[in-house]
Request: fold
Amino acid sequence: MIDINKFIRKNIKNLIPYQSARRIKGKGDIWLNANESPFIQKKTFFFDNLNRYPDKEYKLLIKTYSQYLNINYKNILATRGSDEAIELLIKAFCEPQIDRIMIFPPTYDMYQVYANILNVEIISILQLKNFQIDLISLKKFIKQVKLIYICNPNNPTGTLINPQDIIEILNFTKNRCLVIIDEAYIEFCLKRTSINLIHNFDHLIVLRTLSKAFGLASIRCGFIIAHIEIINVIKKIIAPYPLSTPTLKIAQSFFSQKNLTILKKNVSELNKNKKFLIKELKNLSYIKKIFPSSANFILVSFYYSDKVFLQLLKNKIVTRNQNFKILLKNCIRISVGTYAECVSLINTFQVIQINI
Reply:
């Protein structure tokens, strides 16, 4: 059983959370406890009851998502995208200027950004040349680390962490720190999820999002999946009613059998488009390497990445230049689009090859 007091910040441990109107239990037909407007707005954008705070809708989404994951709803918290989850975890468990987080660059930038904002030190352990975690360095520099952030599949490389390494990390860090596995892209390789490991490792936290495979980036909805003691700590500091009624209702509707079938179809199509894109890119002489990817993007190493990036922009194709990142010199990250977009991209690359 996790001893949450060992990890939680002292001031958060003693914090009395804000008691929102819906947190204070009550049943009735006339609601006069939340300073809401009593006037029901005309149905707007297919949503009603917008004059009331979204409590029931939040609980419904959590229960629906728990059925999708086959995980107890008490182990789940919904957040404003997984970015908010990253921030909340640092806020809850890391004492500024005392505790540390550990990351493995090149990886998702927001781990570092939030740590810098919250004045928490960062231990950066460079990935190995094959984009795997350096376990020796991890064990060497674990002192005072409260949180370890692992992006799997990793952004921006698209690579998966060896499952044996994840188990070794979880075994080593037991009673030492919390391990967060960010699975933003896991729907593209579901067999490699770590979600079921939370039953064996109560210091494991898994982050999910609806922004990628679900195609719901604009509604900003993510999830924390963890031991109930960890969830209860985050509940103390999360904003009251963190997600809006439209967000909650849209998110919940996407777990119908029909929409889950569409999700699988879209994932399959994007994976097929990715294979096509890689196959065609291999014919270009100015590409040095295409890295294996288990996500909906590919990382490509060029001989002249800055020139290529600018040429693509001139042709109104926007990609992500990674040339400034450690270990990613001359690399560009390319999201996989529709088949038509992939064809347009290949045609543009062929024109660039003539001009470069």
Q: What stands out?
A: DSSP finds eleven helices and eleven strands in the chain. The chain has a mean pLDDT of 93. Residues 198 and 335 are 30 Å apart (CA to CA).
